[in-house]
Design a protein that fits this description.
Number of helices: 19
CATH architecture of the largest domain: Up-down Bundle
CATH topology of the largest domain: Substrate Binding Domain Of Dnak, Chain:A, Domain 2
Structural class: alpha/beta
Radius of gyration: 23 Å
Strand content: 5-15%
Helix content: 40-55%
Bound molecules: iron/sulfur cluster, FE4-S3 cluster
Shape: globular
Number of strands: 15
Distance between the termini: 56 Å
Length: 559
C-alpha cells in the first residue's frame, strides 16, 4: 500500500504497511481502486454533460464514493468492494446512455473507463492504480493535491445534498477534475490552475453548505454549552452530519435517553433549531483522537455520523453505531433514508436504554456560536475594539486536531499570544485551546468558535466583511494572520479556498503535506507565501512582527 493523504502519514512520507490511522493494506488498495473507478466514471460523466445527459445518480455516486475514502471514515473492505462493483455497473450504464443519445465513445479511452474484473481480481488491479502509478513526482503531487481537494469538496457537497441543496456546477467540476488527473497530456502548467480552480469550487460548496445549514436550522448564535453529564442513559453523537442529529433528537423525545455531542458535533448546540430539545444535554469530551478513552467512559451508545472514526476498542465496540459513509467491520450500521423517510434509530435508542449513565469527565461550560451572522451582529463592537487598539490582531486557527504530540504547539501558541489578540476558529483544531480560559476583550471572547470545519466559510465571510467595513482594497491588509492546523482532506479544500480568495502568508502545520513535492511547495511559497511552523514563541513573535504593526495595518477607514 501507499497512502500519504493525511498529516499523520508514516514518517512524513507515506504509509506503506498499515496506516497510522489503522487503515489496513487491503482497504488502502480497495480505496485506491474505488478512486480509480470513480475517475473512470467521471470521464464518461464529463462527456455525458456535453450531451446534456446529466445524471444525478452518477453525481451522487461519485460524491459519496469520494467521501467514503477520506481519512477515518470507513475501514470496512466489504463496503469498498460493493462500491467498486456498483461503480463498474454504473459506468457501463452511463456509457450505454451516451451511445443511445448519439454520442460516440472516443477511440482508445483511458483504462479507468474500460477496465473490468470480478471482485476476486480487485486486489491485483488495485496494485496497479495507486498513487505511485504516476511516475513524475510533480505531476503526481498535483494530481493528488487535486484529488484530495476534490474529496473535500465532495464531503461538503454531501452534507448540503443531505439537506436538499445541490449545485450542478460543483458536480461538473468534481467530474472534470477527476478526469484531468488521468490525462497524461496535462503538464504542471495545466494542473496548477486546475488546483487553484478547485479552491473556487471549495468556496462555492462551502457557501452552499452554509446556506443549507442556516436555512434548515437557523443562524448559529452565541451559546453556552454544558460540559457535564446528567444521570440518564445517553447517546453520544460524533461526526459532522446535522440531519442525523436532528432525526435522532426527534426520535429520542420522551424515551428517557439524553443526547450529547462529541468532537465536531459540538457546534450543533449553536443552532436555534436544536435548542428546543430538552434532552440535548451538552458536549462530552474532546476531539476525535481522544475517543478511545472518552467513548469508554461515556458508558452509553456512541453514534458516528461521519469522520473521524478510530478503529474501536472492544470496551465500547458493541455500543458503537455508524451510518452514511462511515463503516467498520463488526460495527452496527444504521441504514440510509429511503424515499426521504427519516433513518430508523429505534435499535440504537433501545440499546441506549440498557446502558448506565455517562461517567462525568469534566464540568463547566464552553462558549461558541460565532459564525458569520453572530460576529457581524457584533461588528460595531469588534470594529471599535480594533480602532481603539483593544484588539491588535486576529489569528485564524481553523482546521483539524490530531493525535501527534507536536500538536501541543497549538496550545502553546494560543497561550503565548498577546492578550490583545483574538483567535477565530472552526473545526476540531479548537480543542487544543478552547478550554484554556483565555478570557475576553471588552466582552468579546478571545476564542471565537464559528463551528465545524464545515463552517470555515464563516471565517472567510467575517474577513470579507471586515475588509468592507474598514474600506480596504486587499484582504491581506487586515490585521489577520492565518495559522492553520490540517489533518485530513477537508482541510485541503479549506486551504485551496483561502488561496482562491487571495489570502497570503498562510502557515500550515504541524507538518506540510507529504504529497506536496519540493517543486510544488516552491510554487506555493513563491506565489502565496505558504510556510510551515517552528515553535510557538518564535512564531507568535514572527506573526506579530512580520505582518507589521497591527495599528499601522489597521489605519482603517470605516466605510
Ligand atoms: Fe496513512 Fe493517513 Fe493514509 Fe491513514 S489516511 S493510511 S494515516 S496517510
Ligand atoms: Fe476534525 Fe476529523 Fe478535520 Fe472536521 S473530525 S476537522 S480531523
Amino acid at each position: 500500500m501507499f497512502c500519504y493523504q493525511c498529516e499523520e502519514t508514516t514518517q512524513g512520507t507515506g504509509c506503506t504497511v498499515k496506516g497510522i490511522c489503522g487503515k489496513p493494506e487491503d482497504v488502502a488498495g480497495l480505496q485506491d481502486l474505488l478512486i480509480y473507478t470513480l475517475k473512470g466514471i467521471a470521464i464518461h460523466a464529463t462527456q455525458a454533460r456535453s450531451l446534456h445527459l446529466e445524471r444525478r445518480d452518477v453525481d451522487e455516486f461519485i460524491m459519496e464514493g469520494l467521501f467514503s475514502t477520506i481519512t477515518n471514515a470507513n475501514f470496512d473492505s466489504s463496503c469498498f468492494v460493493t462500491r467498486i462493483e456498483d461503480g463498474l455497473l454504473l459506468r457501463e450504464a452511463l456509457r450505454a446512455s451516451i451511445i443511445t443519445a448519439g454520442g460516440t465513445i472516443p477511440a482508445g479511452p483511458n483504462d479507468a473507463a474500460t477496465w473490468t474484473s470480478p471482485a476476486s481480481g480487485f486486489e491485483q488491479k488495485a496494485a496497479l492504480v495507486g498513487v505511485l502509478a504516476t511516475q513524475d513526482e510533480d505531476i503526481r503531487s498535483l494530481r493528488e493535491l487535486l484529488t484530495y481537494g476534490v474529496k473535500g469538496i465532495a464531503a461538503y457537497a454531501e452534507h448540503a445534498y443531505t439537506l436538499d441543496y445541490q449545485e450542478n456546477g460543483v458536480f461538473a467540476f468534481i467530474e472534470r477534475a477527476l478526469s484531468a488527473t488521468l490525462d497524461d497530456t496535462l503538464t504542471v502548467g495545466d494542473l496548477v490552475p486546475l488546483v487553484l480552480e478547485a479552491g473556487k469550487f471549495g468556496v462555492d460548496v462551502m457557501a452552499l453548505l452554509d446556506k443549507a445549514n442556516t436555512t434548515s436550522y437557523g443562524n448559529p448564535e452565541l451559546t453556552t454549552v454544558n460540559l457535564g453529564v446528567r444521570d440518564k442513559p445517553g447517546i453520544l453523537v460524533s461526526g459532522h452530519d446535522l440531519k442525523d442529529l436532528e432525526e435522532l433528537l426527534v426520535q429520542t423525545q420522551g424515551t428517557g435517553v439524553d443526547v450529547y455531542t462529541h468532537g465536531e458535533m459540538l457546534p450543533a448546540h449553536y443552532y436555534p433549531a436544536f435548542k428546543k430539545f430538552d434532552n440535548f444535554v451538552g458536549n462530552y469530551g474532546n476531539a476525535w483522537h481522544r475517543q478511545a478513552s472518552e467513548f469508554r467512559s461515556f458508558n452509553g451508545v456512541v453514534f458516528l455520523t461521519t469522520n473521524c472514526l478510530v478503529p474501536p476498542k472492544d470496551s465500547y465496540k458493541q455500543r458503537l453505531y455508524t451510518t452514511g459513509v462511515v463503516g467498520f467491520e463488526g460495527v452496527k450500521h444504521i441504514a440510509d433514508r429511503v424515499d426521504g423517510r427519516p433513518k430508523d434509530f429505534s435499535a440504537l435508542i433501545k440499546h441506549a436504554l440498557t446502558c448506565p449513565a455517562p461517567r462525568e469527565i469534566e464540568t463547566g461550560e464552553l462558549i461558541g456560536g460565532f459564525a458569520h451572522h453572530q460576529v457581524i451582529a457584533l461588528a460595531d463592537k469588534v470594529v471599535d475594539a480594533v480602532q481603539t487598539g483593544a484588539i491588535k490582531r486576529f489569528f485564524v486557527m481553523a482546521g483539524c486536531d490530531g493525535r501527534v504530540k507536536t500538536r501541543s504547539y497549538y496550545t502553546d501558541f494560543a497561550q503565548a499570544l498577546p492578550e490583545d489578540t483574538v483567535i477565530l476558529t472552526a473545526g476540531c483544531a479548537k480543542y487544543r485551546y478552547n478550554k484554556l480560559g483565555l478570557g475576553d476583550i471588552g466582552g468579546i471572547p478571545r476564542v471565537l468558535d464559528a463551528g465545524q470545519c464545515n463552517d470555515s466559510y464563516s471565517l472567510v465571510v467575517i474577513a470579507l466583511k471586515l475588509k468592507e467595513v474598514f474600506g480596504l482594497e486587499d484582504i491581506n491588509d487586515l490585521p489577520i494572520s492565518y495559522n492553520i492546523a490540517w489533518y485530513e482532506q477537508k482541510a485541503v479544500i479549506v486551504l485551496l479556498a483561502l488561496l482562491h480568495l487571495g489570502i497570503k502568508d498562510i502557515h500550515l502545520g504541524p507538518a506540510l503535506p507529504a504529497f506536496l513535492s519540493p517543486n510544488v511547495v516552491t510554487v506555493l511559497m513563491d506565489n502565496f507565501g505558504i510556510a510551515g511552523i517552528t515553535n510557538a514563541q518564535d512564531d507568535v513573535e514572527m506573526f506579530m512582527a512580520s505582518n507589521g504593526d497591527a495599528d499601522a495595518d489597521a489605519e482603517l477607514i470605516v466605510a
